[in-house]
Amino acid sequence: MLKESNTFAAHVKKAQKVIADLKIAGDAMLATTKLTMSAPLPHIYEETAAGSGAAVSHQVSVGGPAFEPDTVTRLSNEASLQMENGVLVPLKRWLDVHTQLQGRMKEVEALRLEVDSRRHTVMDLSSTVDKLREKLSKANGKDGKIEAHLDETVKKLQHKEGKLSVTVQSFQETEQSLYADLCTLIRDAAWMRHYIATALKAQGNALVGAAASLGENTEPDVHLSVSNLEINGQGGTVAAPSQMLQASSPIAA
C-alpha cells in the first residue's frame, strides 16, 4: 500500500508544480491583459505647414470603451483564490500526510525488528531452560549449581517474555494505526480528479471571462493587418523616408 502511495505521490508532486505554474501564468496573463487593454492607442497625426500638426484621432484605449478592467481584476482574484484554496492547499496537505506516514512506517519497521530480536532472545532462553531442566533431571534434582542457574534463567526468561509481550502490543497498535491512516490517505487520493478539474475550470473560466470583458466584437474596423502590410511595395522591408528623420514630422510624434 505504501509503495503504491509513493508512486502516486510522484504524480501529485508533478501536478502540484504544474498547477502552481498555471496559476502564476494565469495571474500574469490577466494582469497583462488589464494593463495592455487600458493602455492608450497611439494617435494618428496630420501634418501641417506649421509643423507636425495635431492629433486627428481621439484618445482611445486598446481595449476600447467596452473593456471592463474591474471585471478582469475580479476574475483574477477569484481564480487565484480558487486555485490556491481549492487545489494547491489540499494537494500540499495530502503530500504532508504522505510524508508523515513514511516516517511512521520507519517506526513500525523498527518495532518489527525489535519484536524479532526479542522473540529470538526468548527462544534462546527457552532452549537454555529446557537443557538445564534436562541436566537437573539427570542429576535427580540434587545439583545445586544447575538448580540455581535454572532459577536465574527462568526469571530472566519471564522478564524477557514480558518485554516481548509489551513490544508486540506496541507493534500491533502502531501498525494498525498506520494502516488505518494509510487507508484514509488512499481514499482521499480519489479527489485528485476533482482537483485537476477545479484547476482547469477556474483558470479557463477566468480567461474566457476576461475575453468577454473586451466586448463581443474585438476586430478593428480597419481591414489592413500587419500580416499583409507592405511598406514601399517591399513586403515588410522598411525603407525609411526622409521625413522619418525629421523631428518635426508627425511620424516622430
Q: What is the fold's blueprint, element by element?
A:
Layout: H1 2-38, H2 69-138, H3 144-188, H4 192-212
Helix pairs in contact: 1-2, 1-4, 2-3, 2-4
What report would you give on this structure?
- This protein has 253 residues and is an all-alpha fold.
- 10% of the residues are buried.
- The protein has four helices and no strands.
- The protein has a single domain, classed as Orthogonal Bundle (Helix Hairpins), CATH 1.10.287.
- Helix 1 runs parallel beside helix 4.
- It has helices at residues 2-38, 69-138, 144-188, 192-212.
- Helices cover 68% and strands 0% of the residues.
- The chain is rod-shaped and about 135 Å long.
Arithmetic mean pLDDT: 85
Query: What integer value in Å does the Rg equal?
Result: 40 Å
Q: What number of domains?
A: 1
Overall form: rod-shaped
CATH topology: Helix Hairpins
Q: Return the string of H and E elements.
A: HHHH
Largest sheet: none
Question: Which architecture would the CATH scheme give at its second level?
Answer: Orthogonal Bundle
| C-alpha end-to-end distance | 71 Å
Uncertain stretches of 5 or more adjacent residues:
237-245
Helix content: 55-70%
Count of discrete alpha- or pi-helical segments spanning 4 or more residues: 4
Strand content: under 5%
| CATH class annotation | Mainly Alpha
Strand segment count: 0
Structural class: mainly alpha
Kindly list the characteristics that best describe this protein.
253 residues, Helix Hairpins, 4 helices, rod-shaped
